[in-house]
Structure formats: structure tokens, C-alpha cells
Amino acid sequence: MKIETSSRLHLSLIDLNGSEGRVDGGIGITLKNPSLIMTCNETSSETKILYDDKLDFNTHINDCNYKILDACTRMNEYLGVNKSYTFHIEQIYSFHQGLGLGTQLALSTARLVAKLNNIELSTYELAEIVQRGGTSGIGVHSFDKGGLIIDGGHKRSVKKNFLPSSVSKVAPPPLLARYDFPEEWNIILATPNRIPGASGDKEVNIFQEYTPIAMNDVEKISYLTLMKLMPAVVEKDIVSFGEAVNQIQTLGFKKIERNLQSNKITDIIKYMDNNGIPAVGMSSFGPTCFGITDTNVNSMKKDLIDMMGEKSKVWITKGKNQGSIIKK
Q1: How many helices (H) and strands (E) does the chain have?
Q2: Sign of dihedral through CA atoms 220, 222, 227, 231?
Q3: Which residues contact 230 (CB under 8 A, 6 or more apart)?
């Protein structure tokens, strides 16, 4: 059994004020690349996790093993079985880069285990079992449907504190809107080496220190999302889309995420902006920066690598308008 799923951009959280009875909410885009491909087979021995020889993933193996084993254990407990599996990672990208690997890995593991046990569960049910989507629902809904995603956050009666997904155990938020991302638009991703995004205790501390967000920022993000970003995707208006994204990146919690970054992140985003990319920004807590345009961006690749340094990564990709794919 094999599954393929993709990374995502997280453009912004919407409401970290909460005074109107909901918190969180997210805006994101499913990406074609980088992607995760893994297989799973039932085995009579202990559960094993294998990695393709071509992968340069040694620094992330412990994180990856933990995510898979945790999700596998939760699924076995939910299904009432005591089975072992061999997981084989054929293709993968890095943790803590702002591309959402943790959610994709947990959900992929859950889906494979469910399929091998001949059980059909929705993506939402899988996410509840493996405890993903406790803040943003972008990764969960991207796994399920792909495209550009807007989620509705959580009721304050259910989620009382401002917390990142890694430590929030509430159910995933509802999907409010999902649109096909224009096939004509190109997305360039730039991930500098040795600048990890915030995670763990550091991420929790940032949420606790900088929330709640001012309500006027929440109102502006909501307005820009509803009345500029969403219509621009429907009408394939890259100029209006870029204006919306660029404004949202300067507001609310996204402004804080950006302000906590090194000058290198600012330089990457300025470079893209100066070279005419309409929508530029940083995904999640970074460090991955993105540019979205309807023009060719291949010529920018070498300049970005030179700017970021050795072992940095640049992808040129597009939006992905379908969810995960499973094959026997």
C-alpha cells in the first residue's frame, strides 16, 4: 500500500484575538512539491521504518520515526488491534521548514494503517485520532481535498487557550471554503539552510507571549481574505491576489512571525518583491519563503541559492488541486 501527499503553504492565521467566540482560522495553499511518498505493509515482526537510500534525511530521522510510531500506535489502539507494520519512506522533505510535514506524515500513517485493516475513515476522523489540526486546519484539509483552503477555527468553549497545533489536542476546524488554485500560477519556494522554523516549547512561548492579537488586525485580515483574496483566486486575478497576500503578511500573528525572523528572510522576500513577484511572504513560522506569480521564475533560482548559501533549497512548483493519493 502506497500513499502520496504534498506540502502546503500557510499564509496566515486569521483570529488570535478570540473576543467574538472563535480562535485560529487559517489560509493556505496545497503544493504539488515537495511531496511525501511512503509505503506500508503488515509484518509479523516489530514495526520498522525504512528510508530510501537516495534520501539525505539523517538529521530528521528521529522526528520522523516518532511521528510515524505515534500515529501508528494511536491507530492500533483506536482499531483495537495489536499489529506491526513496515513503513518505507521513498520521498520526503524536512521538518520545521513551514511546509507542514508533521501533519502529512501523521495522516499518511493513519490512512495506510486504516486501509491495511480494511477500515474506511474520513480524513477528519483520522486527524482526530492522531491529534492533528488543533490550531490550523490547512494541513488536514489539504491532505483531504487540496487547493486553496480557508478554515473556520475553533469555538472558544472548545479551545480556551492560544496554542500551536503541536500541543493543541482539539478536533480539526471546519472547512469554510476550498477553491482550485489557478494552474497558470507558478510558486517559487526558497528555504535557507540552518534557519529552522519555531517549534516545540519555543513556538508555545511565542503564542503565549504575543497573544491576544489586536482586534482591528483580525478584522482587516478577515476583510482582505473574504473580499480580496478569495475573489482574486476565483477570477484568476494575480494582481489583486498579490495585494491581499502582501497586506495579510504585515498583520496580526503573521506580522509577529515575520518580525522574529533573521535578516536573511527579509532579504529573500525583498528580492522576490523587487523582481516583480506579485505575492510574496513566509509560510507559517518559516523559514520557507514563497513567491506566487503568473510569469516564469526559473531565472531566479540561481540568484536565490547564491543569496541563501550552500545546501539551501529552491523549488519551482504549482498549487495542487487534489488531496492525498493512495495506491495498492
Answers
A1: 11, 12
A2: positive
A3: 150, 177, 179
CATH number for 2-327: choose from 3.30.230.120, 1.10.10.10, 3.20.20.70, 3.90.25.10. 3.30.230.120
- Residue 117 C-alpha cell reads as 485493516
**Cβ neighbours for 15, distance < 8 A, ≥ 6 positions apart:** 22, 23, 24, 25, 153, 213, 218, 221, 222
Q: Give the Cα separation of 7 and 36 in Å (integer).
A: 8
Kindly state the cell numbers that stand for 286. Answer: 518559516
Please give the backbone phi and psi of residue 41, each rounded to the nearest 5 degrees, phi first: -135, 145
pLDDT digits over 260-297, tens only? 998 999 999 999 999 999 999 999 999 999 999 999 99
Strand order in the sheet with 289-293: 279-282, 289-293, 186-191, 313-317
CA proximity to 26, closest of 298, 280, 210, 229? 229
In angstroms, the Cα distances linking 220 to 206, 214, 245 are 22, 10, 12
Domain ranges of the chain: 2-327
pLDDT in tens, 6-54: 999 999 999 999 999 999 999 999 999 999 999 999 999 999 999 998 8
pLDDT value for 2 = 98
Q: How confident is the model at residue 198 (pLDDT cuts 50, 70, 90)?
A: low
Mark out the alpha helices in 162-262 (DSSP H runs).
200-210, 215-224, 230-235, 238-248, 252-259
Q: Are 289 and 282 in contact (CB under 8 A)?
A: yes
Separation between Cα atoms, residue 103 and residue 211, nearest integer Å: 24
Cell of 90: 521513498
